[in-house]
Amino acid sequence: MPLSLTRADLQRTQNFINARWSDAADGRRLPVSDPASDAVFAEVPDSGAADARAAVDAAQAALPAWRATPAKQRAQLLKRWHALILAHQEDLGRLISREQGKPLAEGRGEVLYAASYVEWFAEEATRAYGDVIPEPVRGRKMLVVKEPVGVVAAITPWNFPAAMIARKIAPALAAGCTVVAKPAEDTPLTSLALTRLAEEAGLPAGVLNMVVASRERAAEVVDVWLADGRVRKITFTGSTPVGKHLARESAGTLKKLSLELGGNAPFIVFDDADIDAAVEGLMAAKFRNGGQTCVCPNRVFVQRGVHDLFVEKLALRVAALVVGPASAPGSQIGPMINGRAVDKIERHVADAVSRGASIVVGGRRLRSDSCDGPNYYAPTVLTGADASMACSLEETFGPVVPITRFDSEAEVIAAANDTPFGLAAYFYSRDIARVWRVSDALETGIVGINEGALAAEAAPFGGIKESGYGREGSRYGLDDYMQTKYLCQGLNLGAAA
Ligand code: SIN
What we know:
The strands form six sheets. Strands 14-15-16-13-12-18-19 form a seven-stranded mixed sheet, sandwiched between helices. Strands 9-8-7-10-11-21 form a six-stranded mixed sheet, with helices on both faces. Strands 5-6-22 form a three-stranded antiparallel sheet, with no helix packed on it. 38% of the residues lie in helices and 21% in strands. The protein contains 15 helices and 22 strands. β1 (15-17) and β2 (20-22) form a beta hairpin. α2 runs antiparallel to α5 (163-175), α3 crosses α4 and α3 (89-100) packs antiparallel against α6 (188-201). It is globular, with a radius of gyration of 24 Å. With 497 residues, it is α/β, with parallel strands linked by helices. 53% of the residues are buried. The termini are far apart. It binds succinic acid. The site of succinic acid has 9 residues, from loops.
């Protein structure tokens, strides 16, 4: 079914390089499909090295004027972009839902989430303060100024096609950087629509360049950016193996990096928790976007005294979730992004069961009148999970809750930290001393304490350990696109002094 938008011109199907909408230099095309049915509904360019180079040429040419543009003017442009995103919330929400599969209500919500980053960084643009340092010796003035890093390459994932573009591109533009970007091959249309709105907001030519490529050709595009010394920063959200590859390959030109990589979030419920609040928190954190988020709980630990009650209450909520296509009113869980994603979920559940876990709810692919497509998986609760299972070792990235029973605080902290990843962690407790102890002990960049919804434009989002480095959102998110320059002026002015 073709996508019907109020503004048909928001469905762009070309790259945007140097303010021109263009096909891939070699004319190759990439189909875009609806995860609800796998039916192709659009085609975009499948770009290669020539397009990647053209984008850097444009971004480099635009850099001097853009970095010299007063911060207030850059902020005004971002505010116009923000207003246009809000004005087209419905169209953007429909695009997100169609290409990514999340229910329409969530698609609309993601537009607001994306817009909040654009607004935040529009405001931060004017606050990129430096410092005046009290000089340690006479006869000097010592200052610190913040400068844009230069051309930024942004590589974004499919799970939040609007929000991840916004929270990388808005701070880059606010800082005075120019951008070359590659959206995920599964979800290019939202980023192209956002680019169209940035164009309409009045962004000068070459400041933002968008290049789409298939999974097969992505490396060709990214390799150009990795090798090109004019690209001074890479910002990436995606898997840890790809993040490590980018870190290795960008070493040749020592680029600045922001890497928001895989997570394996623990969610801990202590005996002293408010159990209803913990169930609500888990529902919000786990089932947002069908469990396809880097911060969603991947391992759930429940203390022995409340285990059975928690499982009982959670199972009732999970069994009541409505699974269906993004467009169906009332859908709460859409299809997974593609068949590979469902295969992985199936493999994790089968592995857990073969190692002794029990299925309390779900545990199967779904095919029904309302879910007539290949990519649906039933929201699932497993008990008896342990650290040997694939679902404890890797991100499942789907609607599966594996529960492990535990006895002591020390035991659960050790288990929660027993992973190379360190993005987010959650715990529920009403004991104030425990709240501080556990917050200190958890090895993650983000901790949710009696709260399941963590991300916000004003907060620093990012991980430690093999979940990467750099922060997105907040004032720290602007810093990641700036470099520090120290100015030292001697006051020994000779005769005049
Ligand atoms: C992500 O999954 O990478 C982002 C999730 C979020 O912004 O909350």
